[in-house]
Amino acid sequence: MTDATAIREIGADEFERAWSIFSTIIASGDTYSYPPDLSLAQARDMWTTAPARCFFAERGGDVLGIYTIRPNQIGLGDHVANGSYMVSPEARGMGIASAMCEHSLEQARRAGFTAMQFNIVVSTNRTAVRLWQKHGFTIVGTVPGAFRHATLGPTDIYVMHRYL
Amino acid sequence: MTDATAIREIGADEFERAWSIFSTIIASGDTYSYPPDLSLAQARDMWTTAPARCFFAERGGDVLGIYTIRPNQIGLGDHVANGSYMVSPEARGMGIASAMCEHSLEQARRAGFTAMQFNIVVSTNRTAVRLWQKHGFTIVGTVPGAFRHATLGPTDIYVMHRYL
């Protein structure tokens, strides 16, 4: 990520600016389990309604990436954070996901979480798996066939985890 | 389970009859991650609002157990069911959990699910782990310290899975 890219927290009112990224990524059906026809209102609610918090990575007024963190469980599991990240297809290879990951880990630490967990990392999304491993995550579980990949069919998903 | 125990689906209007079981079990903070002070309204909403479905195991007019099944994820993961089960402390050792497990697997099959996944099996809950294994589940993941056990502190949780 160049110095010109900034990451900041946003509210529900700004979420729509990332909708072209969000809708494009879920429509491909190869990395996220959201229904490919999820509505803007549903996505906004899931990513910006407390306790979820939402962040933009921007450059020159353009949204290049979006991420959310939230407690992975309510109650006696709410010391573990969960994160989700999306990068504009046009901004791949620029280190945006890596920068958002580090930013999210710091935000999670500051919020008092002691670990971060990803519940559904699609095993065929090797770029993501390698990236999370580079940022300290390990695969702690493999659920067979839990993701219906748009082109590959039933596909394993990984549960990934790291302490903060 | 004796022949006198019957399992049937219930609606939100009947959920309260299981509240003494539900509230007692979550108050102990050793098997469920729900906040120990979860309200009846919150519990009822999570266990009886579609797509969640809720079932009672009853004998002689008494509720001895309650379970719920629902899709484990929305969208491209909704072919995998999730189940949660509670047995009255007074009815332990009677095979109620086992009967509810078998019943839920059949209900999930009929509803078109192709697998069942448990996301948070507390590793110290050995009775449950052995029971699920007996019913065909395997441990597919171990998340370290993801459950704040009331007396044991941070405790590993298992992700368990079986095909239907």
UniProtKB/TrEMBL annotation, chains A, B:
<keyword id="KW-0808">Transferase</keyword>
<dbReference type="InterPro" id="IPR016181">
    <property type="entry name" value="Acyl_CoA_acyltransferase"/>
</dbReference>
<feature type="domain" description="N-acetyltransferase">
    <location>
        <begin position="5"/>
        <end position="164"/>
    </location>
</feature>
<dbReference type="InterPro" id="IPR052742">
    <property type="entry name" value="Mito_N-acetyltransferase"/>
</dbReference>
<dbReference type="GO" id="GO:0016747">
    <property type="term" value="F:acyltransferase activity, transferring groups other than amino-acyl groups"/>
</dbReference>
<dbReference type="Pfam" id="PF00583">
    <property type="entry name" value="Acetyltransf_1"/>
</dbReference>
<dbReference type="InterPro" id="IPR000182">
    <property type="entry name" value="GNAT_dom"/>
</dbReference>
<protein>
    <submittedName>
        <fullName>Acetyltransferase (GNAT) family protein</fullName>
    </submittedName>
</protein>
